[in-house]
Amino acid sequence: MAPTRAATLSRNDVNTYLFDLDGTLLDSIDLILESFHHTTRTHLHRELSDDHWLAGVGTPLRDQLGPLARSEAERDALLATYVAYNLEHHDAMAKPFPGIVGVVKTLHGRGAKLALVTSKMSPGANRGVHLLGLEKELPIRICADDVVRGKPDPEPVYKALAALGASPESAVLIGDSPHDIEAGRAAGVATAAVAWGPLSRETLEAAAPDYWIERPTEVLEL
Question: Residue 1: what pLDDT?
């Protein structure tokens, strides 16, 4: 079933908002793709297509790069190269999506429970939150290195709910990939797909999110 526009619905019981980072709060897809290309050029002397990497958006880096490695040592080298390149170029290539920072600040001002639920490792996630200027609003950050199983497994969502002392019935997970939607659904929270990420509407509709968010301000209407 196609998702319903958030602007036409109201869930007055929602007071917990779980945000993905890349593609949802932070416009960093070009940085992510170039980090992957640099990594595979450096270690494997080849590149994979943008579509290959975009299909894994929302899953942990270890799950995306691990299958390419021929040994544990090579996997660790791939991860280290990616992280180093990504952090070096982060602030020059990433930026907030227009309007989203104000939305998070407004929710915080309302007393909503907020958390970051990302497949990024903590160093990159913390850099992203700093660039967004949302350290105060998003002190709870569930990252790839905080869980055994990342999205689409529900473990990160469960961990965020526990940290916030929130129930699944009061929460919505907002993300830009089918992996976000799958993780949220498995954890029993409502799910919302944003229109401004790198994936097509058709791809996201196939994941059947509960809400479709065209503009950041529509998050305030959930």
Answer: 30
Mean pLDDT across 70-85 = 94
Say yes or no to pLDDT of 51 above 80.
Answer: yes
Query: Rounded CA gap, 161 and 157, in Å?
Result: 6
Tokens of 73: 């040592």
Q: Do 160 and 142 contact (CB within 8 A), yes or no?
A: yes
Helix residue ranges per DSSP H, 66-151: 72-93, 100-109, 122-132
Name the catalytic one among 20, 27, 146, 176: 20
| pLDDT for res 39 | 96
Helix or strand run (H / E) with residue 171: strand 171-175
Tokens describing residue 202: 């058709």
Query: What six digits make up the tokens of 98?
Result: 């227009």
CA separation, residue 110 to residues 105, 106, 114 (Å): 9, 6, 11
Which residue in this structure is represented by tokens 């998702």? 3
Q: Which residue has the higher pLDDT, 57 or 44?
A: 44
Phi, psi values for residue 114, rounded to 5°: -130, 145
Question: How large is the average pLDDT for residues 187-215?
Answer: 95
Confirm whether 27 is a catalytic residue: no
Element (H, E) at 43: helix 29-44
